Amino acid sequence: MEYIKELKAALEKFAVSLQEIIVTHWHPDHVGGVDDICSSFNEGYKVSKLKRLSEADVPLKNTDYTFIKDQHVFHTEGATLRLYHNPGHSEDHTILQLVEENAIFSGDTILGGSTTTVEDLTSYMQSLKQILDLNPSVIYPGHGFVIDNPKETVGGYIEHRNKRESQIIQCLTDHRDTPMEPMDIVKIIYVGVPEALQISAANNVIQHLLKLQKDQKVDHLTPLKAAALYFTGCEVVISTVLLYRH
Ligand SMILES: [Zn+2]
């Protein structure tokens, strides 16, 4: 409700009204406030987002989403926004480019001051490259501080993931023909990481393994579905056998 008050004050101060709400992706912390806005402000604006494919979007209470497509362009007085499908953090994740300034609103793909969670690392790496190729002047993340050195920051994200991938490949090579689970790899390459953070480290490793499999660098990875259960934190016996293709 604090946000609604501030939004009302800002609209009054600049004598503007809501034209459209653009939702970057389906996560609750990004859509959760939309119903409140819709019940507090008069109608006449759209709520736009890219449609989820694997599951239906959770319906809004007071209005329906207007589903838009990749590269959709929004016009308003003095500003143009272009939407890019930028999956990886989530399948429906999008970023917005303020064309006039080549500024990027990065949603959760890039965060200011912390690392994000990744649903699909292969898409995520392509999405980082997409942002780098847009060569933004500044990045406004969904959370955290403004990033005024996009090239170094996004480049750093890519480098960090590539380094992790090399470590995993090295680990698999060193333990060739030994059945390994994601947690075995965590124990070897995430030295000194506290136990509480090891599950999320294992999730990272799983993402890397899935990517390596897509890249045909990992020979045998079974069973994928069971590996994914790490995400829920469930106690599941995982019999992941990895053989590095050499
Ligand atoms: Zn998110």
UniProtKB/TrEMBL annotation:
<protein>
    <recommendedName>
        <fullName>Metallo-beta-lactamase domain-containing protein</fullName>
    </recommendedName>
</protein>
<dbReference type="GO" id="GO:0003727">
    <property type="term" value="F:single-stranded RNA binding"/>
</dbReference>
<feature type="domain" description="Metallo-beta-lactamase">
    <location>
        <begin position="12"/>
        <end position="143"/>
    </location>
</feature>
<dbReference type="InterPro" id="IPR001279">
    <property type="entry name" value="Metallo-B-lactamas"/>
</dbReference>
<dbReference type="InterPro" id="IPR041516">
    <property type="entry name" value="LACTB2_WH"/>
</dbReference>
<dbReference type="Pfam" id="PF17778">
    <property type="entry name" value="WHD_BLACT"/>
</dbReference>
<dbReference type="InterPro" id="IPR050662">
    <property type="entry name" value="Sec-metab_biosynth-thioest"/>
</dbReference>
<dbReference type="GO" id="GO:0005759">
    <property type="term" value="C:mitochondrial matrix"/>
</dbReference>
<dbReference type="InterPro" id="IPR036388">
    <property type="entry name" value="WH-like_DNA-bd_sf"/>
</dbReference>
<dbReference type="GO" id="GO:0004521">
    <property type="term" value="F:RNA endonuclease activity"/>
</dbReference>
<dbReference type="InterPro" id="IPR036866">
    <property type="entry name" value="RibonucZ/Hydroxyglut_hydro"/>
</dbReference>
<dbReference type="Pfam" id="PF00753">
    <property type="entry name" value="Lactamase_B"/>
</dbReference>
